[in-house]
Amino acid sequence: MKTVQKVLAFVGLLSLCTIFIFALQDAPTDENFETKLINDYNVYALQVPENLDFAGEPVPLKNPDILERMDRELLVNTYWQSNGLLMFKRAKKYFPVIEPILAKHGIPDDFKYLAVIESGLTNAVSPAGARGVWQIMPATGRENGLEVNDNVDERYHLEKATEVACKYLIKSKEDLGSWTLAAAAYNAGNAGISRRLEEQNVSGYYDLLLGEETGRYLFRIVALKEILSNPAKYGFNFREKDLYTNVPTYKVDVDTAVTDFTKFAQNFNINYKILKLHNPWLREPHLNNRSRKLYQIEIPKNGYYQ
Questions:
Q1: Per-residue CA distances from 79 to 73, 75, 109, 214, 277 (Å)
Q2: Which residue ranges does the record assign to the Transglycosylase SLT domain (predicted)?
């Protein structure tokens, strides 16, 4: 009998410990996340909004083909949750840089979502040779005033690359007649879109039969616009402090060669890695600058990384 009592006591103690452990795991870790949802993860068929547009140009959702293609991109981007959360985080950091440049050139704000689908707001590298947040090809960069070589590649300079993207988009709008076609041309080229419009005898993007990538292009942009504009509606939960922010910096003028960026960085109480994080357009650990061109190098404000 004593043995049985001991066993029952042990089982009871083990049960209490188990309950305590699960209680700890279930405990809220932040005052903003105190409410625990039951069945927190579910997969739902999404209701495509009745009215969607890009740059003020409506998406013709009454067309069943268009509706299905829009539904696909909303589903894919809603349920790719890890990527979606990263887009929210990066958008908070980079949209404040991109938005005023678009506005300065009279380009609709919706084009910031084009940068999202081009690169995920990273300094991406494509197999075709495009680089940076805006995925600019070498020839396009040089034609629009960017320095592109092994030593300096300004396609990685977000402000300058955004200026070039604006020039390209304005020219596309002038040539093709709509912002939607201008966006498509960013992917397929002005000549490519013009040729297909003529071959198929239509005047708009949504009437074109296109290859997989360009055929999904506008739908992906509109889907990201819809999701990033309505996080709660699509099940994304985060706090303001979860988002990324820009590190405050100041600019240092340099109009000579720099032989060693490691030593250069140390003069400003940072290391080479931090210097490169803020100036990814500097491609080598030195600056040639035989022409004595004026560069502005971003330096984080004193103590930020301390």
A1: 10, 6, 25, 22, 31
A2: 108-201
